[in-house]
Molybdenum cofactor biosynthesis protein MoaB
Amino acid sequence: MTWRLGILWISDRGFRGERKDESKDLIASILAERLPVDFVAYGVAPDEIEAIKEALIDMIERDRVDLLITTGGTGLGPRDVTPEATLMVVDRVIPGFAEEMRRRASQISPNELFTRAVIGTRKTTLLVNLPGAPRSAEICLRAVLDFIEPALELIQGRRG
């Protein structure tokens, strides 16, 4: 099974075209190391709850992604609202998944404890929040990489 991948970058400066996304290709290549993915959707949203919600729902409904990775907006800054928007979109939160990501990632880089990333599902899509900094995104993604495909299989009823 090839999984349909979408990546949403949350960044005010990226949305205004003032900054380039340095995580997208890195995330896609890391995922491709472990599971068959087809990168079908990419978007950029400003750090605004409604814009993030709309972009997430659009990728799930229009692009029918199986796996939706967000980067950015998970920290402690006043405009970091990706987790709040994600919580409004998911049907079910998978708290242990995000907790394990923080635990494992913080063993490599203690600052990863500051990520407020959420992992959950909407219908048959797995949503994973990652930090915006490329190194942090890589550390967090690699921390849970082995769990993504089994989670996708469970969500889609392909595994008992």
